[in-house]
Amino acid sequence: DGDLPKVVLRCGDEPGGDKAEVYLHGAHVTSWIPEATGKEMIFVSKDAIFKPPKAIRGGVPVCFPQFSDMGPLGAHGFARNSAFEVQDGESDQVTLALRPSEEDLERWPQKFELRITVALSPGCLTQTMEVQNMGSSAMEFTCALHTYFRVEDVTNAQVKGLRGLTYLDNLQSRERFTEANACVEFSGEVDRIYCGAPDTIDLVDGAAGHSVVIEKTGFPDAVVWNPWVDKAASLKDFGDEEYKEMVCIEPAVAGSDPISLDAGKMWTAVQKFMTR
Ligand code: TA6
């Protein structure tokens, strides 16, 4: 995985306990191994490119200050392609910070500090996103923590908790639909922005016999994505068969109105994964 600098987090008594890894490039979480499952819970493609400015395929790309094509920047903004600095850290948590470069300010003329804190506790990984408006005028942004979860078999995985929600279907020009099913299952490409998603979403990995409970606060929406065969084949940093072992569940500001943050103010949002 290249020679990019990364932080290894641990909690509990070694050699047991829980472990996670975060690259400074993009403040990119690439691993979470809770003792409770003893398994890697985060998907990273075997073809991932660990070379800036490419975003690492998999893990938790930090999509900021723009989700997808919802603005003037390239897909998902520039934070995931940027070098963060360590601002604070202990053995079980780290805070990484990004301020826009001159080049960033040309493309997106807003002064901000983006802080990503990743904290480990037994069976739980908490990721906090803080945006500080350092400018003299209000700033607007969309964003997501674009999490790739590893699953043993995507055809035996379910995402629970979304029934009744309106979703924008990215595969049908973001037309609005209502989710009729208690479980979202996968038998083809899925790319949906669930608006006003509940703060608790379950990912059931039926084949592995465990679940991940995702608790979000501050993110109004949640994106669910699996590229399936054709999209997977079109991604050169993604193996053709790898769609079978991942599901993206992304706490986001993507279907609702962008966040508008007044000068000097701070916005914060959290995602928390727990094994069950
Ligand atoms: O979150 C889903 C999505 O917006 C998909 O439409 C797909 O483009 C995915 O993100 C990956 O985007 P990327 O720029 O990382 O290839």
From TrEMBL:
Major enzyme class: isomerase
Enzyme Commission numbers on file: 5.1.3.15
Superkingdom assignment: Eukaryota
Gene3D superfamilies given in the database record: 2.70.98.10
Catalysed reactions, as listed in the record: alpha-D-glucose 6-phosphate = beta-D-glucose 6-phosphate
Molecular functions per Gene Ontology: carbohydrate binding; glucose-6-phosphate 1-epimerase activity
Keyword terms of this UniProt record: Isomerase
BP terms from Gene Ontology: carbohydrate metabolic process
Family membership noted in the UniProt record: Belongs to the glucose-6-phosphate 1-epimerase family.
Protein name as annotated: glucose-6-phosphate 1-epimerase
Organism, as annotated: Ostreobium quekettii
